[in-house]
Design a protein that fits this description.
Two copies of one chain form a homodimer. The first copy, chain A, is built from five helices and four strands; from the N terminus they run E-E-H-H-H-E-E-H-H. In chain A, helix 1 (about 25-35) crosses helix 4 (about 85-110) and helix 2 (about 40-45) crosses helix 3. The longest helix of chain A is centred in the C-terminal third of the chain and has 30 residues, at about 85-110. The first copy, chain A, has a domain at about 20-105: Orthogonal Bundle (Arc Repressor Mutant, subunit A), CATH 1.10.10.10. Chain A has about 130 residues and is mostly helical. Chain A has helices spanning about 25-35, 40-45, 50-60, 85-110, 120-125; strands at about 10-15, 20, 70, 80. Chain A has a two-stranded antiparallel ribbon. A two-stranded antiparallel ribbon of chain A has the order 3-4. The relative contact order of chain A is 0.14. The radius of gyration of chain A is 17 Å and the shape is elongated. At the A-B interface, strand 1, strand 2, helix 3, helix 4 and helix 5 of A face strand 1, strand 2, helix 3, helix 4 and helix 5 of B. Strand 1 of chain A pairs antiparallel with strand 1 of chain B.
């Protein structure tokens, strides 16, 4: 990700079968890869187990190939990111990098036009569509 | 926008003063330009007047220059998009186009991997973070 002080572009993808992929999905795959467990990933990301499971299930059903393989029988459960899941992360991160390059000039121009006494609170309220 | 049947990339921008710009903000500027009124834009977009006003106010405070100028004294109120607001739309649409080009190959690969019997309902629930 970009440094926290800079302007940043966020991308998300909507797919023609009704599926959707965003930063949170990709972060989930990366966290499952690290934790090897859906429960562990939910704790590390600070989102509910139910939501974590629903996100994983949605990704698994979006594509012909599973993104995360779960092993309910294994001690403490367990999950592994598939090769396709790794490919998904690589593709998404590549789209992010290329979009960031494509947006660099525009972000520079916008940053030069900013009001630095702006208070984000109300804006965030307005932006929670 | 892309055709509704194709894969699509959505972009949003977070700015270093805490501000944020997304598709809904840009659509709002375009709709205000058409309606010349915040109330008219809120009706046309099907969002509440309060949210429309908060979004407009947040954009106006994000930058040094106003994006939308309001004329409360004018009969029936009224609003005009400023030259800076027009520039914001042009910049954002350009970022969208360039990101779409940058994402085209990845979106093609993802589309070729889709499960076409996917039901979007649960995925949308999982994606409403």
């Amino acid at each position: 990700m970009a440094d926290r002080k800079g302007a940043r572009i966020h991308v998300s993808l909507s797919l023609p079968n009704g599926g959707h992929l965003d930063e949170a999905d990709i972060a989930l795959i990366e966290t499952v890869h690290k934790c090897r467990s859906i429960l562990g990933a939910s704790k590390l990301m600070g989102i509910s187990y139910r939501k974590t499971w629903l996100m994983t299930d949605a990704m698994n059903r979006t594509f012909e190939t599973k993104v995360v393989e779960t092993f309910p029988g294994r001690r403490g459960g367990g999950a592994e990111v598939t090769a396709f899941g790794e490919r998904l992360v690589a593709l998404f991160r590549s789209v992010e990098r290329r979009s960031a390059s494509a947006a660099a000039a525009a972000l520079g121009e916008l940053t030069a036009s900013l009001n630095w006494s702006f208070e984000a609170g109300e804006a965030q309220e307005a932006n929670s569509h």
